[in-house]
Amino acid sequence: MTEQHVVIAGGGPVGLWLAAELRLGGTAVTVVEERTAIDERSKALTVHPRTIEVLASRGVHTAFLAEGLRIPNGHFAMLDTRLDFRGLDTPFPFTLALPQARTEELLQEHALRLGARIVRGHRVTGFTAHDRSVTVHVEGPRGPYEAEATYLVGCDGTRSTVRQAAGIDFPGTPSTVLGRLGDVTLDRPPRPGFGIHTLQGAVMVAPLPGGRFRVLGIDPDSLTTEWPGDLTMDEFRAKTVAVTGDDFGMRDPSWLSRFGNAGRLAAEYRRGRVLLAGDAAHQHYPAGGVGMNVGIQDAHNLGWKLNATLNGWAPEGLLDTYHAERHPVGVQLLEHSRAQTALMTTFTPEGLDLRALLSELIATQPAFGRALAERLTGLAVAYPAQDPAAHPLTGTRAPDLALAGSEAGLFALLDPTAYLLLDLTPDGALGDRARPGLAVRSAVLDGPPAAWAGVRAALVRPDGHVAWAGTDRDDAELSAALDGALATVLLRAASDRGRRVSAP
User: In this structure, are residues 240 and 215 in contact, taking their beta carbons and an 8 Å threshold?
Assistant: First the structure.
């Protein structure tokens, strides 16, 4: 066992992104995946703006942008008025329609390039926890074996073996709704963004790369706890026609499936040296296509914290903030999914009136629509500040701030292995404080957003959230406030060796 070895159970998008983040910090990582190959049936289809930002912060977003279909809006509960993403404060005001299979391929290539070890056809069956390590039990093609690790992370789905072996509760509500989907060719596709909701049911059509389409549907018969059997093409076509009056010339299905609305949330995201991320931590109805995105953002929050802990520059207790920050995001995920499910499964005159009212509010109240859009896309996620007197930016996601004299924005400066200190004083008054766990950049903001007006220095975490911001006009006061902030997030290094970030 190496001193810095993490075993990840599950090689889907969440496990692969976490593996890459760990490798960027120099941590040895093994991904154990039961599937022998990437599943061509793509549960997830949508890559949201915040996830594209996450990819951009590591310089791997270009392939996703090149291959994904850009959609400048999204739906909330299949309401008639769609949410407009074009005015959001992000370089990526759109979602990408990209099958999960291709997302996994791209993330796997990224993780392998960085040196992650991925073993397929192997399955984590349990573990034995020790004071300073975890013995991971694995079943492989040649039989059972053990792998020693410093930490074990369960990214192994809603039926997570790691979660169950850890004895972590997964409370929630059972499935009462069965939606359906089909990935098909449509000879007569409807208009872009097509969705319909009537007393007879609801149908939505989303484009897939390659000219194919995903058709999703639900109707009053879907409100059941009884399993009606596997979905057939005949049933799928008939249900679509019953709601829309047309089957759009659907043919050649590559995948037909039913999915439920069970909602569950892990009681703990961390128990000792065992942690959970993605579907292993939260299960929900796939409303809005947010599940994979929240999971990748779980991994983005966790990866740098594991690296910082293993590399010795983080204070004790940093890993505890993973649950403290991401569990509330899981709570909101279930709340939003259940709210959308309630709106999507109402097939009464009263329910349709409620939907019409909310659609009108989105269309006529820009602030309401924007708030829903920011929540859906993950841009609104903010972590609570420990100090009630902290600057309002503390805990918020830092946007891709434009820097004077540079073509690249803030995302290009983020370092997975260190906090970024933005010294915004005119003459670099804060000095060169770079050391392990801290990179420094003197800069002038080019047209900063209103929330950043007056900020003279900011400390940005490796995951792009603001750890501290200072506005003191006196350089000595600003320096003292910064020293206090650094003392809470970094262990004092034996030397001041480090690096100053150069202009891109």
Answer: yes
Phi, psi (degrees; rounded to nearest 5) at 422: -90, 110
Are the beta carbons of 266 and 162 closer than 8 angstroms?
A: no
pLDDT digits (tens, 9 = 90+) for 133-183: 999 999 999 999 999 999 999 999 999 999 999 999 999 999 999 999 999
pLDDT at 209: 85
Residues recorded for the chain: 504
**Token pair recorded at residue 464:** 């792009």
- Using alpha carbons, select from 98, 99, 111 the residue that is nearest to residue 11: 111
Spatial distance between the Cα atoms of 24 and 152, rounded to a whole number of angstroms:
18
Q: Write out pLDDT tens, residues 343-362.
A: 999 999 999 999 999 999 99
Q: Are 436 and 498 in contact (CB under 8 A)?
A: yes
d(CA 185, CA 251): 5
Is 119:32 a contact under the CB 8 Å cutoff?
Answer: yes
CB of 81 closer than 8 Å to CB of 359: yes
- Look at the block and give the residue holding tokens 């260190």: 418
Residue 46 half-sphere exposure toward CB, CA atoms < 13 A: 23
What's 438's DSSP letter? E
Span 43-68, mean pLDDT?
A: 96
DSSP 170-222: --EE----EEEEEEEEESS---TT-EEEETTEEEEEEE-TTS-EEEEEE-GGG
- Whose structure tokens read 């020790």? 130
Q: Global pTM?
A: 0.95
> Model confidence over 269-300: pLDDT tens digits?
999 999 999 999 999 999 888 999 999 999 99
pLDDT digits (tens, 9 = 90+) for 4-29: 699 999 999 999 999 999 999 999 99
Rounded distance between C-alpha atoms, residue 248 and residue 441, angstroms? 55
CA 313 to chain centre: 25
Q: What's the rounded Cα separation, in Å, for the pair 451 and 144?
A: 55
Within 10 Å of residue 358's Cβ, how many Cβ atoms?
18
Mean pLDDT of the residues in the chain = 93
Name which of 260, 298, 304, 264 is nearest 278 in CA terms.
298
